[in-house]
Amino acid sequence: GIRVCYGRSADDLPTPDKVAQLVQLHKIKYVRIYDSNIQVLKAFANTGIELMIGVPNSDLLSFSQFQSNADSWLKNSVLPYYPATKIAYITVGAEVTESPNNASSFVVPAMTNVLTALKKLGLHKKIKVSSTHSLGVLSRSFPPSAGAFNSSHAHFLKPMLEFLAENQSPFMIDIYPYYAHRDSRSKVSLDYALFDASSEVIDPNTGLLYTNMFDAQIDAIYFALMALDFRTIKVMVTECGWPNS
To answer: Can you tell me which family this protein belongs to (predicted)?
Structure first.
């Protein structure tokens, strides 16, 4: 089904109630927000729409240091609206390796504390905990079979992947084929980035055929996971898009 990201950093935005109505009108079943805004959570109550909410990077330090912070956030920001609002995922931090103040060392401790808070309420099997990443976590993505995580992030990624595998949570990735085209126009055609390619790209190591950059990038993540022997973790795309001008 179609999934949308609902960001609110802009002018003249419709109210959360109007957004919820619009989402229902277009029969969209999944929505990601980047925090746990009360008005948004209320607006999506009793709609049946699955919501992904987030702990912002600015809160990672406090969530990682004290279990009580995760407990009180869950009690005040999530529990009053659940299960009327169908919260299915909590992202703890977003693309931390790309942020100017690298908070990657706080992510797994914060995820652990959020999971513990969910366990106390018996919700850990219904609401999954993860964190989102940019494709910058890879040092190689072409060919897809050579996909490999950047060794400079190993201290952060290894414990995170262990957490995801143990708790059956997905590896969340924000993928933008546009950037691959922008940065390597001679190698990545516009058609290939836009799902319009008439020709195929063959991975010489596997013989797999790729008709678009999106699929190739997803497979690069899977191969990177397999290279570290994490074969059970599923990959979930949490952002994708194209410039509008």
So the answer is: Belongs to the glycosyl hydrolase 17 family.
User: How confident is the model over 77-130, as pLDDT tens digits?
Assistant: 999 999 999 999 999 999 999 887 778 999 999 999 999 999 999 999 999 999
Taking only the tens place, the pLDDT of each residue in 128-138 is 999 999 999 99
The one catalytic residue among 50, 95, 166, 200: 95
CATH of residue 68's domain is 3.20.20.80
The answer to whether 95 is a known catalytic residue is: yes
In this structure, is residue 26 part of a structural domain? yes
pTM above 0.90, yes or no: yes
Asked about 239 being catalytic, the answer comes back as: yes
What's the CA gap between 193 and 177, in Å, rounded?
Answer: 5
Tokens at 169, concatenated: 């949570």
Whether residue 83 has a cis bond before it, omega within 30° of 0:
yes
Q: Are 107 and 93 in contact (CB under 8 A)?
A: yes
Catalytic residue chosen out of the listed positions 50, 162, 200, 239: 239
Length of the chain: 245
Q: What are phi and psi of 88, to 5 degrees?
A: -115, -25
Residue 136's CB: how many other CB atoms inside 10 A?
Answer: 13
Residue 60 lies in domain: 3-177+233-240
Token look-up 């290894």 returns 158
